[in-house]
Amino acid sequence: MRGYFFKRTLELIPIFFIISFIIFALLNAMPGDPLLQMRMQNPRAFAQDPERLIELRAYYHLDDPLIVKYIDWLKNILTGDLGYSSQYKIPVAELLFSRIPNTLLLTVTAWIIGLVLALPIGIYSAVKKYSVFDYSTTIFAFVGISLPSFWFALMAIILFGVILQWLPISGIETYGLQGFWTVFLDKMKHLVLPALVLGIVQVAFWVRYIRASLLEVLDQDYIRTAYAKGARENRVIMKHALRNAMIPIITIIALDIPYFFGGALIIETVFAWPGMGRLMYQAVLASDYNLAINCLMFLAIITLLSNLLADVLYVLVDPRIKLDDVKRGG
Amino acid sequence: MFRKKFDELENEISGLPAGSYNQLVLKKFFKHKMAVIGAIIISALIVFTFIGPLFVETTYDEMDFMAIFAPPLSENHFLGTDELGHDVFVRIMYGGRISLIVGIVSSLVSTIIGLIIGLISGFLGGIWDKLLMRFVDIMLSIPMFPILLILSLVFGSGVFSIILVLTAFGWMRVTRLVRGMTLSLRESEYVMASQTMGQSKLMIILKHILPNVIPIVIVSTTLNLSYAILSESSLSYLGMGIQPPMPSWGNMLQGAMTYILGTGTGQTPWWLTFFPGFFIFITVLNVNFLGDGLRDALDPKFVSES
């Protein structure tokens, strides 16, 4: 097991370099350059001294070949120097560390909401196949996967924020509040809408998956055997069926982690939630290269790690799989 | 004559209703009520967005200053107007045209690309297969949505570049599916038989493998279509896709965002947000219904239980 884990982790290293290069190249292809922004902020200084521009280009190595720039950049981030945000005028690392907890709060809450809703609904609709509940679940799942998440968010804002005025609709806290519990409650209130929207959209995907996976297991001979020997339904489902059905489900749930971060980009933007996603969106809009590239790298690393997690979980939860059988993809 | 009898006999044995594969597919498809409804609604939407504008007098950028923020069902404006007096109903027609073109073209092209790469990878095997699949793995581990955002900045905004961007990141799942099927088909007896008869690789792929993967490919085209429509609308909503004044369902929502808290005169123009999103939702929902019905109908192993 440890050998497998080690091997899979080693495999990630070349992929990390390729992805980081693609991201770096893409950001370099973005229109405009860092000096353009400097020039716009201080047009007169550059107009008086055109040679300064050439000096600065050389100073920042803007005319180096792409691969040289990439290696320089790689050296910097691997030594922990993430650069400086041109938009916020503070080091990127500092900015990231202040925003990551907010994004984690949002995504983890949404993830939990998703699981808590999807598991029982999926299991129950598989057990009561073709019942009214099952049909309603199927319809709900279709609705959920077809819903544009940002529209869902906007409608939630209009209904709960503007018309009913039950919940705050933007930001993460109200300024000027005192006391731990007041601040905590206020934060929770701000969390409700974004987390629910992000979580519920995911429920639809998972419910269908859980239902299909459990139905496949319920068709197996050993389930009939379990019933035949007189085991009660609850026991058959919980002990015999679910344990096997969980294997693909766990994998999918791990593989979906990056989707939460991706989805958070839109949801955070709609709700003005000060997290990574919104930070990245603004960085891209403002051509804040250092910030955008580091946010992207963070997301890429999350994606790679959740793929690794899914692979490892798959082997861990299913003792029948021999390690040499595990093939990538498929 | 003989062949027909043989077919009947075979169907009797297998317990399937009589008819060719195509007839069976049609029969199963029409049994699937939601899929039929989906097909009807999508056709209606296509007619509505492509032919509808010919029958209305206003265009998407015509402003009616006498009716700013007119609510739905008001005079001359069935679904109301926005802050410039643009007619929401007309804009939804034109916007739907853009959204559907972007969705249909990018999903078709990305499916074809995925099909070709999948066939090559699965049939050739060996080092090519390894390289291509590793490439697919890498593409799948790139955080998709943020990259779409950056790509649409790189390529500029506009219908063509949005299609390009969505296509570039839409082919990987089809590739995997097709490759998997091709791998197993390659080992089947009839493919080996034609190989021993000296059939060329290209002919084997075209005549023996392609027809078998087509059903899967059709189903994944519908999945790609719903995905492309959702992505286009998200990108346009974030201001990276189709740019105003040309409307798309996504950028109409972006425009509505400004007035979501009210217009300053105590009015909440909910219709600006509700209708464009509702049309995206209805389109994607019915594409999904259609895809589900097609999957049931095209899969010969899946015998309808109803």
Detailed description of the structure:
The complex is a heterodimer of chains A (330) and B (306). With 330 residues, chain A is an all-alpha fold. Chain A is 77% helix and 0% strand. Chain A has helices at residues 2-29, 34-41, 43-48, 50-59, 66-78, 92-127, 132-146, 149-163, 180-218, 221-228, 233-255, 257-271, 276-285, 289-317. Chain A is globular and about 90 Å long. The relative contact order of chain A is 0.13. Chain B has 306 residues and is mostly helical. In chain B, helix 5 (126-140) packs antiparallel against helix 8. At the A-B interface, helix 1, helix 7, helix 8, helix 12 and helix 13 of A face helix 5, helix 6, helix 10, helix 11 and helix 12 of B.
Quick description:
The complex is a heterodimer of chains A (330) and B (306). Chain A contains 14 helices and no strands.
Cα-to-Cα separation, first versus last residue of chain A: 21 Å
Uncertain spans of chain A, ≥5 residues at pLDDT below 50?
325-330
Q: What is Rg of chain B?
A: 24 Å
Give the averaged pLDDT of chain A, no decimals: 83
Count the helices of chain B. How many? 12
- The general outline of chain A is globular
Low-confidence stretches of chain B: 302-306
Oligomeric assembly:
heterodimer
